[in-house]
Amino acid sequence: MRFDRVSPVRAYERVVEQIEEAVLCGRLRPGEHLPSERDLMVQFGVGRSTVREALRVLQSNGLVRSRAGDPRGAQVQAVSPGALQKSMTMLARADTLGLAELVQFRMLLEGSANQLAARLRTPEQLAEMDTAMDVMRTAVDEGYAEFSRADVAFHEAVARATGNTLIQICGTVVRDVVLGLIEDKIVNAPDSRALMLTSLEHHSRVLEAVRDGDGELAARLARRSLYDYYAEYVPEDERAMLLPLLD
Amino acid sequence: MRFDRVSPVRAYERVVEQIEEAVLCGRLRPGEHLPSERDLMVQFGVGRSTVREALRVLQSNGLVRSRAGDPRGAQVQAVSPGALQKSMTMLARADTLGLAELVQFRMLLEGSANQLAARLRTPEQLAEMDTAMDVMRTAVDEGYAEFSRADVAFHEAVARATGNTLIQICGTVVRDVVLGLIEDKIVNAPDSRALMLTSLEHHSRVLEAVRDGDGELAARLARRSLYDYYAEYVPEDERAMLLPLLD
DNA sequence: TTGTATTTGTTCGTATGTATC
DNA sequence: GGATACATACGAACAAATACA
Predict the structure, then answer these.
(1) Does the beta carbon of B158 lie under 8 angstroms from any beta carbon of chain A?
(2) Smallest Cα distance from A87 to chain B, Å
(3) Beta strand A75-76 with B64-65: parallel, antiparallel or unpaired?
(4) d(C-alpha B109, C-alpha B174), whole Å
(5) Cα separation of the two ends of chain B
(6) Residues near A99 by Cβ (< 8 Å), separated by ≥ 6?
(7) Residue A102 burial by CB count (10 A; 0-12/13-18/19+): exposed, middle or buried?
(8) What is the largest CA-CA distance in chain A?
(9) For residue A88, what is the nearest residue in chain B, using CA coordinates?
(10) Chain A CB contacts of B56 below 8 Å
(11) pLDDT tier, A97 (very low <50, low <70, confident <90, very high otherwise)
(12) How far is A26 from chain B (nearest CA, A)?
């Protein structure tokens, strides 16, 4: 007979578990307030610091928010994807990930996002994309910073049009991480204006495919566009892993 | 002139930020140990409780682990998808993430994963998939639990063949969350054997496409297979968002 | 193997600034 | 503005756990 190693369960963890369970089960609804720390330490039968450590953890996970001096105690927050975005960002920032993997993932995501958007978009969402395109056009003459902001707005509009929170979050995270890795190289590019004009042309063709409801074409164009934009920054020996997404 | 509302930054948050940054930048590598709590309270110029609250938050995010009595202090952990899985599970339980979104994301991921695997797989990786398929075949008569394990092994093999860590991690997390939501319904299905046989047939056709190097076909079959398997558990009014991925 | 020193886990008391009534 | 109750933060104290001689 072999026994498993036991890990001691801290007092604060059991406090976290109980409150977390209450929030997730809906016994504590967003907007409601927890009892005060002193009440909680009586209810849970633990010391003050233990209660506070538990509340800190819950707060960092976005489940509650406490303000100094509030006599009503910590407030239960609406469950938001903030924690998901944070943990995803940590994974993507881990240095074990290469630029090729990140770009490949982004090609995969944005390709499918455009495919979905081509079919599921509402007229309002299409208008948002048109607006973002207009801003991009005027931003060509205002420098890379402006252009990049409009570019981001376009991709966000496409992601929103999918109606899928996971696609939006992963898209945002991967885009931010990729940009963080190579932004300096783009800023210092000798022909940044040419880059912007090419990018504009690519985005325009993707948008037309989305407008026509041609998901397959939108996906292909989006992936190709990302490849053309980022491939030169990907080490040559890793570039091969991007090609299968271009068929 | 209008001013923005300021939110007070707690002492423990600044401690968290500094340690988090050090870990994510690689200045603190996994396996290394932080200074003791008493050292940290001197270095940061805060009280011990504040240090402890910061460590608890870092621990709940999976960045460090501290053991009672360890004179070496808290140990920096390797970046793991645990936090990602936890936050995604929480969102799913709180109904912020619907099953339709999760399945859609999985169709998107696995479709592209198979497309990549069809082109990038090594013969060894193909052999792994064949092995997983063999186990699935024999597991049909051994019950759903065995079958599900082999099924997971197959999808993991495909994800590994892409060579992309993000695809593997996101695939694993989303799959586990989806299975957690509907596993009980599958177990209690009246014709679970028929389900397994159908799934087996689908997997077999996907694998043949991967073997032939036909990425487009592999992607289409994989998405279709997921749809057929999970669509009945997706609320009818949300099922439409899965269809654009089936073209 | 058995201490011994050090650390973490936890509690408690106190001081201070803050939000609500 | 004042009273009250609260969260924030500090630090001392003790128990339990760990590493190391």
Answers:
(1) no
(2) 5
(3) unpaired
(4) 9
(5) 54
(6) A178, A181, A182, A230, A233, A234, A235, A238
(7) buried
(8) 74
(9) B84
(10) 12, 53, 56-57
(11) confident
(12) 8
DSSP label of B96:
S
* CB contacts, 8 Å: A79 with chain B: 90-91, 94, 96
Cα–Cα distance, A150 to A137 (Å, whole number)? 9
Residue A86: what pLDDT? 92
Instruction: pLDDT band for A48, please (50, 70, 90 cuts).
Output: very high
Degrees (nearest 5) of the Cα angle B145, B149, B155?
A: 140
Check whether residue A68 has its CB closer than 7 Å to nucleic acid strand D.
yes
Q: pTM for the full model?
A: 0.91
Q: Would you say A167 and B244 are in contact if contact means Cβ atoms under 8 Å apart?
A: no
Whole-number Å distance between alpha carbons of B70 and B47: 20
Packing angle, helices B99-120 and A165-187, rounded to 10: 50
Using a 7 Å CB cut-off, which residues contact strand C?
A 10-12, 41, 45-50, 67-72; B 36-39, 48-49, 52, 55, 66-71, 73-74
pLDDT, mean of residues A188-197: 87
- Beta-bridge mates of residue A75: A33, A65
Tens digit of each residue's pLDDT (9 = 90 or more) over A199-246: 999 999 999 999 999 999 999 999 999 999 999 999 999 999 999 899
B57 in contact with nucleic chain D (CB within 7 A): no
Tell me which chain A residue has its CA closest to the CA of residue B61: A87
**Under the phi-then-psi rule, with left for phi > 0, alpha for psi from -120 to 50, and beta for the rest, what region is B98?**
beta
Cα distance between residue A213 and residue A207, in whole Å: 10
Tokens of A129: 């994309």
B50 nearest nucleotide via C1' and CA: D9
In three-state form (DSSP H/G/I as H, E/B as E, the rest C), the secondary structure along A170-220 is HHHHHHHHHHHHHHHHHHCCCCHHHHHHHHHHHHHHHHHHHHHCCHHHHHH
DSSP lists the bridge partners of residue A131 as none
Q: Contact B115/A244, CB-based, under 8 Å?
A: yes
C-alpha distance from residue B219 to each of A108, B215, B226, B230 (Å)? 12, 6, 11, 17
Per-residue pLDDT tens for B131-142?
999 999 999 999
- Strands (E) in B119-167, as ranges, are none
Which strand D nucleotides have any atom less than 7 A from protein CB atoms?
4-13, 16-20
Question: Residue ranges of chain B with pLDDT lower than 50?
Answer: none
- What value does the mean pLDDT of chain A take? 92
| Cα–Cα distances in angstroms (integers) from residue A201 to residues A124, A191, A196, B31, in the given order | 22, 16, 9, 48
Euclidean distance between CA atoms A168 and B61, whole angstroms: 22
Q: Which helix (H) or strand (E) holds B241?
A: none
